[in-house]
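(Deposited chain)
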Amino acid sequence: MKGISRRNFVKNTALATGAASIIGTAEAKPAKELFVHHVYFYLKNPSSEADKAKLLEGLEKLSKVPTIRMVHIGVPAPTTRSVIVRDYSISWLCFFDNLEEEEIYQKHPIHLKFVEDYSHLWEKVNVYDSVGPKR
């Protein structure tokens, strides 16, 4: 395993296992049950590493909301196909068991504190919420 630390290997393995369990669970449940919340943050100062670090700090705190089943914090990948959007600074992807759990998250004190403490860092956010199609 050249180029990857043991810590990163373990972390990536855990993420892959978690994603696989969510996908497996989503298939076992009716599709409408899984609620996906994806937020793209556009920093006011996108070249500021300090602002990125501060927002990442806030998202780590936000990940403690108990109704979140799984979370992924990311930055634009180095892909260059014409359909790839890379103009955001940080993405926040989280999964909930259902819409009600996501609504609890929206009103949770940790989420409200996150918005209060960190919203000065971004100029805009795009939010994509999705549920499985009715079959």
